[in-house]
Amino acid sequence: MCGQPFVIRLGVYALRTNREMLSIMSADILFRVDLPHGRCVGVRVPGAAERGDMSCLVGEERNFLATLSPARRPTWLAGRIALHAALQDLQVDAGPILATKRGAPELPEGVTGSISHKRTLAVGLAARLDRGLSLGVDIEPIPALPPSPTEPGWDNRPDISSHIMTPEELSALAAVPNSLRRREVILHFSIKEALYKAINPRIGRYVSFQEATVLPRCDGSVAVTLALAEHEGPFCAEARWSEIDGHLLTTAAVRPIG
Does residue 225 share a domain with residue 184? Predict the structure, then answer.
């Protein structure tokens, strides 16, 4: 557990926010950063009363968006905008980004990417394909410290640590002050979500939370140990974490070994 979080300070990074890069859309881009695992773009999710900017979507994407419920449209739209922007920053025109049978974004050959979204923020992560690289990204709102009575359900949320954490992770959690425990559990959850998004295209099945042990460090790196139940692989798995725009942002990269 770290006393000081690894925070992305947007002014430190070379944010390519010139007119050429922003020409993809007039949507609210909150950040565009280069992370160790790829180019990451964050987009504000439009409110329920907003139409949302669909200028970067092509026909198939617009048609699919129209089939979604009103509750799902804003986050799906913001996620596609974010991933299109990340790919454009890599000089890649991906065409329509629909979904695979397992729900991941379907991308053209030569690139890999991932999407995550919450109520107010969506992010897209992309990189050029290299040695079988597969990416995953996740975001989770940073819980209030101490928990705030205004946070919906803050005092009724179950403790999910025993469900998502391995014995080694639970042992490390025991040393975390009670006031920071929930944040640490959410961080582990987010890292594993990103990791499973990255590894799923390689094995094509559901991966349980017990099939990976992740131990986040203060510098934003993560020690990752895979214990895949069906012994797929071997794989080289990496993960990183940071804080940005009020969220925990986690990324993962998986490559086959050999």
Answer: yes
Task: Give Cβ neighbours of residue 63 (< 8 Å, ≥ 6 apart).
Answer: none
Backbone φ, ψ for residue 208 (5° rounding): -80, 160
- Domain containing 152: what range? 139-256
Specify if 243 maps to a domain: yes
- Tens digits of residue pLDDT in 151-199: 554 445 688 999 999 999 999 999 999 989 999 999 999 999 999 999 9
- The structure's pTM equals 0.88
> 93 in a domain, yes or no?
yes
Of 238, 218, 217, nearest in space to 226 by CA: 238
**Do 171 and 110 share a structural domain?**
no
Q: How many CA atoms lie within 13 A of 136 on its CB side?
A: 24
- Exposed/middle/buried for 20, CB within 10 Å: 0-12, 13-18, 19+? exposed
Cα end-to-end distance, the chain, whole Å: 34
